Amino acid sequence: MRLGVVFSALARPASVVQTAAGELIFRWQTGTTFNQKDGKWVISARAARRVPAQLWKKFIALTSNDPRAVRHFARQFGPLRGGSGDAETVPEWLRFAELGRHIANAAQALTSGGQSDPSDWEALREWVRPLAGDHEPKTVTARKLMVMASVRRWLLECEWHIVPRWSASLLEMAVCTGSLLEVIGLQLCAEISRSAGKVECSGCGKGFRPTRAVPGQRRFCRTCRDKKLPVKLAMRDYRRNHRRQFNSQ
Known about the structure:
This protein is 45% helix and 16% strand. The chain has helices at 55-60, 67-77, 90-112, 118-132, 140-156, 180-195, 222-226, 229-248, and strands spanning 2-5, 15-18, 23-27, 32-35, 40-43, 88-89, 161-167, 170-176, 199-200, 207-208. A hairpin with a 2-residue loop joins strand 7 (161-167) and strand 8. The longest helix has 23 residues, at 90-112.
């Protein structure tokens, strides 16, 4: 048996109005229209939209620099908490987008061994305080627990459930979602799981899984190795050290 993550389609509102106070008002149906070709009246509601696998990246890219992007995003994928009919605010959207950035940055720093930003950990520390108390994460283990607690509290904001289903000859446990906030949280979980064990390539900066890792040495992905980048960088360092020794004489 394996655990599968299934992202359902999200209902799309007919329109989204942003008030002067920063509220998003969702209108789900615009009534009926007459189709002259078929000679029938049809409901002009928008069809559900299939969720892109990388939707979480677009969501956490939302910033206060472009508030109209929030309304456009909501027009495509609906409200954060499903079709409850309640108005939502732009600051609430931006709060979760910023939190998503902090979670993604902190997880990336942990899995790649790169330098982490103190502001990421301060934001996660504030977010998980109701669950884990006020503790500063000083060790790698403590920081991993904080990332886990951050995602856990995100999912506690949602309502999602697991349904068993058959896929070919395997029994999957499918995660069923019903709102944008749930989808983003589960996509963040999936991304953190996929990036576990990755390190940052010393050439291109992208994450990859090394066959072996030697502390203190550069690590290169297959693409950079095929481009002979390790040799090029080694020759560059050799010439630099040679010039430094020559100038010191």
